[in-house]
Amino acid sequence: MFGLTFEKLLIIGVIAVFLLGPERLPHYAAQLGKFVRSARDFANGAKNRMREEMGPDFDDVDWQKLDPRQYDPRRIIRDALSDADPFAEPAAPVVARAAVNENSAYLQRKRKREALGADEVAPFDSEAT
User: Minimum mean pLDDT among 7-11, 32-36, 51-55: which range?
Assistant: First the structure.
């Protein structure tokens, strides 16, 4: 809950006692209690209204799937841009491979090494660093 631990809440409470003083503290504590009760009643009222409007389907909803912390924006964009059927069975994973450049330096060196015979010495480049 907002990164507040028991120790932090205790420190806030001690600071409130010093700032408010013993005369005004009971009044503000009562107001805080009323606010917490009204917030709880508001949340329960919204939950009950949702249950009434959805009917028996309310209990069948998987609320974990609707948690906004579970969303991955990259996956949402990828799904929106793909032409695949979202309800189809997932296929085997696709592994992206880079295009092979046949004239790359690595492949040229590899071909030269493979072309050397058993008794030949590999070429030496004296200007290489």
Answer: 51-55
The DSSP symbol for 97 reads -
User: Tokens in use for 34?
Assistant: 């009323």
Q: How many residues does the chain have?
A: 129
Tokens of 30: 């009562």
CA dihedral 98, 100, 104, 108 (to 10 degrees): 130
Rounded Cα–Cα distance for residues 108 and 114 (Å): 10
Model-level pTM?
0.39
Q: Is the separation of the CB atoms in 122 and 113 below 8 Å?
A: yes
Q: Determine the average pLDDT of the residues in 27-34.
A: 90
User: What residue type is assigned to position 120 of the chain?
Assistant: E
Query: E strand or H helix at 29, and its extent?
Result: helix 6-54
The predicted structure's pLDDT at residue 13: 84
* For the ranges 14-18, 63-67, 85-89, the one whose mean pLDDT is highest: 14-18
What single DSSP character describes residue 87?
A: T
Tell how many helices (H) and how many strands (E) occur in the chain: 3, 0
